Amino acid sequence: MNNLSKTTHEPLIHITKRAAMDWWKACLVRLASIVVALLLCAGVIILLTKLNPVEIYATMFKGNFGTPRKIWVLLQNLSMLLCISLAVTPAFKMRFWNLGAEGQVLVGGLGAMACMFYIGDRLPNVVLILIMLVASILGGVVWAVIPAVFKAKWNTNESLFTLMMNYIAIQLVSFFIMVWVPNGSSVMGVVNADSRFGWLPDLFGQKYLFNILVVAVLTVVMFVYLKYSKHGYEISVVGGSENTARYIGINVKKVIIRTLMLSGGICGLAGFLLVSGTNHTISKNLAGGMGFTAIMVSWLAKFNPLMMVLTSFLIVFLQRGAGEIATQFRLNESVSDILTGIILFCIIGCEFFINYQIHTRNKHKEETV
Predict the structure, then answer these.
(1) What is the pLDDT of residues 310-352, one digit of tens each?
(2) Among residues 364, 268, 329, 261, which one has the least CA distance to residue 58?
(3) Higher-confidence residue: 231 or 63?
(4) pTM value?
């Protein structure tokens, strides 16, 4: 009898799903990714600007915490990004890819601004603010329910649908600005600056404190809703498998529409807070891209509203710090964008190593007789 040997060739590299990593190990991986990102940024800074990286990082810190006003602006930006992130999270957890938060915020803000413009001096301020709030939430709900109904009834592609709704919302805002500002400037100034009708009140002398408190309460409510309520359970089941949800008696179409109503309503609330509590005006850049940034915040936090506080802070800190770097050192804005991009890339990339393992080729022989 002859002994025959057979060599089995494996791929040079193959990837397998990792078992659940301990939370402290995952935190160490994320911390290591930030350290690596800072080292890479230091190298880029030296190559491009010949500046001391330590001074650059100190400037990022001062840009966020240098003065009390900068701290309040940081908290305001954090709260608005967090609010929109909370809005998209229920839909994302259900695996409904709502890319229309930008438009839903715009329509919500447009509802608030219409109330300020047309009835701003006809009602007591408290009543006016309540009407603005209702109009904003209804606007966001309508803008989110339209793609939800099409998805539930005809299984349309929600990503494209919600994305296209953003552009319609932008044109709606542009149209109404042209109506309200007939001089052709296409820029709407601060509304009711003298009377302050429709403006949220300053709490303890702080302009942004009302917004921050509202979003803080909303964060806790959303955490309880998603983790402990029946609706939150149904969202998780539908996100896991629609077939399983139907098998155990969940009305999938109802859950989709209801969840998008919630998502759009919170986006409308964000639009109200931006118009009534922050800008007191409206433009097509009201959301400032936060509708898309919120997607990253939600994913990084694993759809956990409490963890979103940290991810929102990280992103806002980087964005404001990068802007401060460009201003203080008179650098091109592209340099600050490069630094922000490197850090975010490393933070997002570390999630791969938390969830997957990379194996290299292991040659072995199987002998047969």
Answers:
(1) 999 988 998 888 788 778 877 776 777 787 788 888 888 888 8
(2) 329
(3) 231
(4) 0.89
Q: Where are the beta strands (DSSP E) in the chain?
A: 4-8, 13-17, 356-360, 364-368
Query: Rounded to whole angstroms, what are the CA distances from 174 to 64, 110, 142, 283?
Result: 32, 10, 19, 7
DSSP code string of 279-326: ISS--TTSSTTHHHHHHHHHHHTTT-HHHHHHHHHHHHHHHHHHHHHH
pLDDT tens for residues 233-289?
A: 999 999 999 999 999 999 999 999 999 999 999 999 999 999 999 999 999 999 989
Q: Which residue type occupies 367?
A: E
C-alpha to C-alpha distance for 298 and 264, rounded to whole angstroms? 16
In terms of C-beta distances under 8 Å and separation of at least 24 residues, what long-range contacts does 344-350 make, across chains too?
344/296, 344/315, 344/318, 345/37, 346/33, 346/34, 346/36, 346/37, 346/40, 347/30, 347/33, 347/34, 347/37, 347/300, 347/314, 348/296, 348/300, 349/33, 350/29, 350/30, 350/32, 350/33
CA dihedral 168, 174, 178, 184 (to 10 degrees): -140
Angstrom distance (rounded) from CA 85 to CA 310: 12
pLDDT 10s digits, 341-360: 888 888 888 888 888 888 77
Tokens 């990714």 correspond to 33
Q: What average pLDDT does the segment 60-70 reach?
A: 90
The angle at the Cα of 365, spanning 359 to 367, to the nearest 5 degrees, equals 150
CB contact at 8 A, 140 and 269: yes
Which of 99, 96, 148, 146 lies closest to 253 in space, CA to CA? 148
CB 105 within 8 A of CB 144: no
CA diameter of the chain: 103
Residue 279, exposed/middle/buried by CB under 10 A (0-12, 13-18, 19+)? middle
Q: Please provide the average confidence, as pLDDT, over all residues in the chain.
A: 88
